[in-house]
Design a protein that fits this description.
Elements lengths: L1 E3 L5 E5 L4 E6 L8 E4 L2 E9 L2 E5 L12 E8 L4 E12 L3 E7 L3 H24 L1
Antiparallel strand pairs: 1-2, 2-3, 3-5, 4-5, 4-7, 5-6, 6-9, 7-8, 8-9
Amino acid sequence: MFSRKKNDLLIVSIDEERRDSFRVEPSSREPIHVSIGRKRFQVKNIGAGGIGIYRRGGDKGLEVGGKYPFKMTLPLINEVISGIIRIIDISDRVYNCTFIGLSKEEMEKIHLFALERQKEELREKRKA
C-alpha cells in the first residue's frame, strides 16, 4: 500500500478507494494532533486522500470501516480542518484513514499545508 520515495514523500494507493495521493509527514517540531470524539491522536502523515494516525498502546476504540468526526489544526498555515474520516486499515501502530466528503475549501487547505511542508523540508535540507 505504501512506498517511500527519496524525498520523504509518501505515495499512497488505496485500492479500495481507487485513489492515489501524496502524503507528507508533519514536522517533529510542529506535530499535528487530531481530535476524534474525546480522544486525541498524533498524525503520522496527511494528504488530500486521508491521514495516518498513530495508535496509542492498547487503544481499541476505532474500528475498520468505522466513520468518525474529526477536527485538527494544520500548522504552517494555521487552518482548522474538520469532517469525517473512515478507518480503512489498522496496524500495530497506525490507523490508516480516508477523508469522506470534505469540502473543496477543506481540500485546498490540505493541499496548501502539504505544499508548505514540502517547502519547509527543502529549506531544512539546504541548511544541512
